[in-house]
Write a structure and sequence with these properties.
heterodimer, A: mainly alpha, two-stranded antiparallel ribbon, elongated, B: mainly alpha, 2 domains, 3 strands, about 65% helix, about 5% strand
């Protein structure tokens, strides 16, 4: 009897684990979408709010460069504001996108060429991401919400889970 | 690792050096020749071969090897076979090599004229700087555009596995340098891939053309704030974007 209980316990534990995995498992297209959403959140945080990964305002541009940026006196850059928002041609921020997606994760980032600009900006004190803090707090919250929402959906989809009482 | 801009500048610089070396080669070879003899010599030389031997082929190889660097940074979301990627590289390689033949023909023509008019070596070098289509800024534009187009091709291939009703938004700056077609695309709002292909054929890969700073991206919650759709719509309503109407795409400043 004891061995049967152990066998049943193992059997149901495995089954339950499989169900939990289903909850965490998201379609790959969902992860691609997450990558796009998070990338756009970062772009908005950087370009429109002018904030770095720590949520601080970027240090102002060198006055001469700010003036050139305002006047549109830069190749492929139209006249705009002279604010520090890491957005001139838009090439660097537009390149931030989903680079890899599986059914369990997504990787976002820049291609080789534009990533050099990201590093250059970071060396210049304008940091979009770091190893310690990959996402700004606001973006992190946004991502958490997306994951929570999808997890709830998956739980609903997998609501056939039944609790088995073993033994008495 | 150089940026796209630096790669383009390097390619342009090396092309300039090849042009100067071609002039030197011809003038050294015909050092003691009369104008007519020099003109005959120029007509006899295979300039495509000369330009290639003076480093144009290796210049193109260096440039397209950058593409391989791009490939290394992309872990395709959609299955994009190595053959397809190599085909994209090969297509661009062929494009630059054909540009080399154009360069050779133009240089032959210029040197032939220069020989007959008795132009000095220095004058010739100065004259070929303006050879149509090969000014450093023009080469930069070509390289820059080709690399961005290449990058968009890969992204477009990746989006193929998304559901067909997935919508995309045209993202990029809307300012005084934005061309009409880009303003139109930005103002069109969210479109599915088939809609994009029917309304703006090819734009998923080429954007608005030379120097374009825009691309179609998956529609997100923040797309409205990033697309400049409202700004583009205002521009269209004001008829501002029509100012450049009729100007060929490649002659417009920017995308």
């Amino acid at each position: 009897m004891a061995s049967l209980r152990r066998a049943l316990a193992l059997h149901y534990r495995i089954k339950l684990m499989a169900k939990i995995a289903d909850i965490v498992d998201m379609p790959r297209s969902w992860w691609i979408k997450v990558g796009a959403e998070v990338s756009d959140e970062i772009i908005d945080h950087t370009k429109n709010k002018g904030l770095d990964v720590q949520g601080r305002k970027f240090k102002p541009l060198d006055p001469e460069y700010a003036e050139r940026k305002k006047s549109g006196d830069i190749r492929r850059v139209g006249a705009g504001n002279g604010e520090a928002n890491l957005y001139a041609t838009g090439d660097m921020l537009s390149d931030l996108n989903t680079k890899r997606a599986t059914s369990k994760s997504v990787t976002i980032g820049w291609g080789l060429f534009e990533s050099k600009k990201v590093v250059g900006n970071a060396n210049n004190g304008r940091v979009i991401t770091t190893r310690k803090r990959p996402l700004a707090k606001m973006v992190e919250k946004f991502l958490q919400k997306m994951i929570d929402k999808q997890t709830k959906r998956n739980i609903k989809k997998n609501d056939t889970i039944t609790v088995h009482k073993l033994g008495k | 690792m150089p940026t796209i801009e630096r790669t383009a500048i390097e390619f342009a610089k090396r092309t300039e050096a090849i042009k100067a070396a071609t002039v030197d080669y011809v003038y050294n070879l015909g050092a003691n020749m009369s104008r007519q003899e020099l003109a005959v010599l120029v007509s006899e030389i295979d300039f495509t071969q000369l330009v290639n031997e003076l480093g144009y082929v290796s210049n193109v190889d260096k440039l397209t090897s950058r593409y391989v660097d791009i490939l290394r940074t992309i872990d395709p979301i959609a299955p994009l076979s190595e053959e397809v990627l190599q085909a994209l590289v090969a297509t661009d390689n062929a494009f630059y090599l054909s540009k080399g033949s154009d360069l050779a023909s133009t240089m032959k023509q210029e040197l032939s004229r220069g020989a007959l008019t008795g132009a000095s070596r220095a004058t010739m070098k100065e004259a070929i700087k303006d050879v149509s289509g090969f000014r450093p800024d023009q080469v930069e534009t070509l390289v820059d555009t080709a690399q961005r187009t290449f990058s968009r091709s890969v992204t477009a291939a990746m989006t193929e596995e998304m559901p067909p009703d997935t919508t995309y938004i045209y993202i990029g700056p809307i300012d005084g340098k934005t061309r009409d077609v880009c303003v139109e695309m930005a103002a069109s709002g969210a479109l599915t891939r088939p809609q994009i292909e029917s309304q703006f054929p090819g734009s998923m890969v080429t954007g608005g053309g030379f120097n374009c700073r825009h691309a179609w991206r998956l529609e997100t919650k923040k797309s409205g704030k990033l697309s400049g759709e409202g700004k583009a719509q205002t521009k269209l309503d004001d008829g501002e974007s029509k100012k450049g109407a009729g100007t060929p795409l490649q002659n417009q400043v920017d995308g």
